Amino acid sequence: MGLNLRRVLIVASIPGSLFAIAIFITLVAPRLLANTWHPAPKEPIAFDHSVHVQQVGLDCTFCHRNTATGGAIGGMTAGIPDVQQCMFCHSAVATSSVGAPGFKMDSAQAQAEIDKVRHAWQQQRAIDWERVHRLPDHVRFTHEPHIQAGFDCATCHGDVGSVGQVVQVRSLNMGDCVGCHRANAALTECATCHK
């Protein structure tokens, strides 16, 4: 009888183990991965948002123009400014009289970063910025309705205006988005966000 009990336990442990693995994959792993810290990417130019927002007084949409208007690609991305847009200001602002506090740079180091922008412009070369906030390809996210609903950029992107290097501050996973939609009485149908 002891041998039959042992066989039953072995046979029963297989589905039990599979069930435990399935629970871990569907419930626990996404939460662990969502809270994993991802280091900021190494950008080609140390762009200090705090200088542009706090010292110059620019609004996010001044540079990220596709957010509020829908832009040519429907507001799917905020739009990274091209070199021409940077030079709109930096043709007049040729030198840095201040450092880059978010990067703990003095004015000479900040000037070297501005010179990289000017050099890219002279070479008619794009700046290959690294994307920080990324959603899966099967997700359709549009900034425009969020801006029109009165959400500040900091809701999802954090207080970018007071930092140098941008980092992802929210998980931006499905649970995060659905939780926010529910809390704000927004649509939660699958087709709202999924292609």
Structural account:
This protein has 195 residues and is an all-alpha fold. The chain folds into two domains: 1-36; 43-193, no CATH class. 49% of the residues lie in helices and 0% in strands. It is built from ten helices and no strands. It has helices at residues 2-34, 49-55, 60-63, 66-69, 83-90, 107-122, 143-148, 154-157, 174-183, 190-193. Helix 5 (83-90) crosses helix 6. The longest helix has 33 residues, at 2-34. The protein is elongated. Residues 71-75 have low confidence and may be disordered.
What tags apply to this protein structure?
10 helices; 195 residues
Helical amount: 40-55%
Number of helices: 10
Radius of gyration: 24 Å
Strand content: under 5%
**Number of folding domains?**
2
| Average pLDDT figure | 83
Principal-axes shape call: elongated
What structural class is derived from the secondary structure elements?
mainly alpha
Question: Separation of termini?
Answer: 57 Å
Order of helices and strands: HHHHHHHHHH
How are the SSEs placed, and which strands pair?
Layout: H1 2-34, H2 49-55, H3 60-63, H4 66-69, H5 83-90, H6 107-122, H7 143-148, H8 154-157, H9 174-183, H10 190-193
Entry summary:
Mean pLDDT is 83; it is low at 71-75.
